[in-house]
Amino acid sequence: MITVVVLSGRLDAVLPAAALPALRTAEAVYAGEGVPLEAWSALGVDGPAPAVVPDGSVVITTDASGYPDADVITTPEPLGAALLDAAAVMHRLRSPGGCPWDAEQTHDSLRQYLLEETYELLEAIEDGDRAAMREELGDVLLQVLFHARVAAEDAEDPFDIDAVASELVAKLVGRHPHVFEGGDPAVHDATSQQHRWEELKQVEKKRESSVDGVALGQPAVALAAKLVQRTKRAGFPVDLLPEGDDTGTTLFAVTALSKLAGEDPETELRQVCRRFAANVREAEAKARAEGLDSLAAEDWRRFSPS
């Protein structure tokens, strides 16, 4: 079976996300009808599509009619159009004649919702709930649109969603020279790219310390892990990490060991918390089934999962 990726024919056409797995594992990638080789050289195109395309290959083309038995993936057109609709709806809600509640919100009043929606998205990801992920990603996007719309009304320093998007584009392009500028000898795999990202960020933001820019308001385990990650990249010796018998230092040490071992201590701890909560609910359900409304210590031991 071959895979045919059909571009829309637009000059700014992009590859659909659904095609990426096939491209990453393809035996060969060919340029078909309407696709100039040089335009897609970054994908490692092997050449023009031969008369007989071998199984396991991908053909990028604007016309799939010559491949009747192929698995066809079509580029959506245009990508991101619904984002314009979302921005327009947010503008309407915030404008005169829109929603009174939306009109009253400020950056400060919206902070709680940004945190809530972010945690709900995190939970959906942990649960592997695709429908919930789609909904919660939309709710997080709403917060971005909302804050940008509020910012557009600022009398002293206004900016809008286009300014936010433009700054993001500039950042992504600037921190991926290996993709957008013809190559970067410092990048040869995902790990080296992560290091390169931090190096470029340090230069871009003119930071003087390896821990500049770490958000100190994030949850403590995530904060400790981030500090350890940053200082490790800067060559900070492990033996200089905080030592002591107090609770805070002990927690920092456990977090540091986890991060240095390549783990994500925030995720690890959240998974333990979720299992613990599930076990508590299970024990309480078993107790209720036997007519118990409150549990003594021996009841908890009897009903808790082993």
TrEMBL record:
Pfam families, sorted: MazG (PF03819)
Quote the InterPro entries the UniProt record gives: MazG-like_dom (IPR004518), NTP-PPase_MazG-like_N (IPR048015), NTP_PyrPHydrolase_MazG (IPR011551)
What are the recorded Gene Ontology BP terms?
dATP catabolic process; dGTP catabolic process; dTTP catabolic process; dUTP catabolic process; response to stress; TTP catabolic process; UTP catabolic process
GO MF terms here are: nucleoside triphosphate diphosphatase activity
SUPFAM superfamilies, per the entry: all-alpha NTP pyrophosphatases
Q: Sorted alphabetically, which keywords does the UniProt record give?
A: Hydrolase
Q: Does the keyword Cytoplasm apply?
A: no
- Coiled coil start-end: none
Gene3D superfamilies documented for this protein: MazG-like
Q: What is this protein called?
A: XTP/dITP diphosphohydrolase
Native organism is Lentzea albida
